[in-house]
Every structure is written in structure tokens, then in C-alpha cells.
Amino acid sequence: VQLQASGGGLVQAGGSLRLSCAASGLISDDHAMSWFRQAPGAQRELVALIASAGIANYADSVKGRFTIFRDNAKTTMYLQMNSLKPVDTAVYYCNLAQFGANYWGQGTLVTVSS
Fold first, then answer.
1. Would you call 34 exposed, middle or buried from its count of C-beta atoms within 10 A (0-12, 13-18, 19+)?
2. Is residue 110 within 8 Å of 11, Cβ to Cβ?
3. 33-90 pLDDT, tens digit each
4. What is the rounded CA–CA span in Å between residue 23 and residue 10?
5. Kind plus residue range of the DSSP H or E element containing 32
6. In contact, 31 and 95? CB cutoff 8 Å
């Protein structure tokens, strides 16, 4: 399984960005995909997750601002980020979990200026 993340960039506070994560390889119907982020000097944290049934969960810090969704084929996942804040600045990683294994994308940098 390979994951390719894209869509990061520099945006002013209050702005929006959409991240994409394209998955390829042997992907089961029973998998979960998620977005993590890691700010400088901080641990990687879960931002949002979408389960195989389509149920989404979010970190409290992004609820109401970020939306995770995917295409019908379940191979491309998105993170719509609105009302961005400087504290959202981080490298964002996509993850796919199936059969007890975790796969990671290469990360995409999001920088929010004040």
C-alpha cells in the first residue's frame, strides 16, 4: 500500500486548504483512513479519522472547522480545513490502517500565518 499526500501550503489565518491522500495497492474494503499532524517539537497527533463505514471522528481542536471525507472508491481521502489558525501549522500525514498494519504518506506541510 502506498499513500501520496498533497495540498499543503502557506495560508493566512482564517483561510482554507484542502489536503488529499491517494491510496494505491492492495486495499481492503475494511480499512480506516486518517490524518495526523506533527508540529515542530510536538508529538504526532490524530486530527481526523474516517472508518470503513464512513463514520468520522475528529480531535476536539478541529471539530467544526475540519471535515474528513473520501471518494466513492474509498481510495482517495480529503481533509477540508477551514478557519485555519496558526496553531494548525504542522506537517500533516495520512494514514491507512488495515489487518493490523499501518501505512503512512510522506507528509505535507501546512503553514498558517497570523
1. buried
2. yes
3. 999 999 999 999 999 999 988 899 999 999 999 999 999 888 899 999 999 999 999 9
4. 24
5. strand 32-38
6. no
